[in-house]
Amino acid sequence: MSAREEHARVERAARWLSDRVGADRCAGVELAMVLGSGLKSFVDALDDRVEVPFSDVPEWPRPKVEGHGGAVVFGAVGGAPVVCLTGRVHLYEGWSPSEAVRCVRTVRLLGARRFLLTNAAGGIGDGLAAGDLMVLTDHLNLTGQSPLAGAHEEAFGPRFPDMSEVYSRQLREHLLASGEGLKRGVYAGLLGPAYETPAEVRMLRGLGADAVGMSTVHEAIALKAMGAELCGMSLISNLAAGISEQPLSHDEVIEAGRAAAARMTAVVSGLCRRFA
Ligand code: HPA
């Protein structure tokens, strides 16, 4: 598919959502969030909710992984207008990078300027334990792919966008000030879906990764290219392979999300309230 066609799809989705929810409401969003594995319960705390299933929005891909939900939810936190995407699609499901970022590009086109990307990740860095929340300082895109590869579409940003500060220093500071004991570190995004081998985890550690997961980096690249201000937070759902003696399981990742939901919700609410 050409870059023009991809842009037309994003525009169509944006127009549909704007008609459905209201242009003012869409444009008034102070913070847009992608809620990763097990974290979607944050939307329960929103005031004045309007929820639209992903499957209703034209052109949007539908998440297939259990525990990932799948709705765009407009609402408010302490008076701050926000929007949440409860779930995302991943490359390992067979989606292309442009499909994987279509929802966030739509929300950006609707007028959101600030984003928080959340995910579950395996902990690699010293001092990280299961249940920790880690604010992303930077990332390693190790998927070998990019949502910006292929024909260039000016509306999605420059051909060679600067990535020297993907995760805004200012938003990071806001996030760190919104909770106690938050960690910080570099997130490595891999294709998956197999969890890493212990040798791969040793390699990632050598490359400077503190946590590893299968999402987020393409969304971050696409949003940064579109001029958004963004930050990211990982829930360390497990210690990465070889760091923990335990074999990894998807159930463990989902369960850790549930267990940390209250803490995560408090931090994210705190961040939202800064934009009331
Ligand atoms: N590796 C990759 N992705 C993950 C992990 C992990 O250990 N935990 C949660 N998502």
Description:
The chain is α/β, with parallel strands linked by helices and about 280 residues long. The chain has one domain (about 5-275): Nucleoside phosphorylase domain (Rossmann fold, 3-Layer(aba) Sandwich). About 30% of the residues lie in helices and about 25% in strands. It contains eight helices and nine strands. It has helices at about 5-20, 25, 95-100, 100-110, 170-175, 200-205, 215-225, 250-275, and strands spanning about 30-35, 45-55, 70-75, 80-85, 115-125, 135-140, 185-190, 210-215, 230-240. It has a five-stranded mixed barrel with strand order 5-8-7-6-9. A hairpin with a 2-residue loop joins strand 3 (about 70-75) and strand 4 (about 80-85). Helix 1 packs across helix 4. The longest helix is centred in the last third of the chain and has 24 residues, at about 250-275. The mean pLDDT is about 90.
Determine the structural class based on helices, strands and strand pairing.
alpha/beta
Bound molecules: hypoxanthine
Could you state the CATH homologous superfamily? Answer: Nucleoside phosphorylase domain
Instruction: Count every beta strand, where a strand is a DSSP E run of 2 or more residues.
Output: 9
Largest sheet: 5 strands, mixed, barrel
Beta-strand residue fraction: 15-25%
Coarse shape: globular
Low-pLDDT segments, ≥5 res: none
The order of strands across the largest sheet is 5-8-7-6-9
Per CATH, what is the topology?
Rossmann fold
For the record, what CATH class applies?
Answer: Alpha Beta
Task: Kindly report the average pLDDT value.
Answer: 92
**N→C terminal distance:** 40 Å
The CATH architecture comes to 3-Layer(aba) Sandwich
Total of helices = 8
Q: How many domains would you count in the coordinates?
A: 1
Helix percent reads: 25-40%
**What are the secondary-structure elements, in order, as H or E?**
HHEEEEHHEEHEHEHEH
Radius of gyration: 17 Å
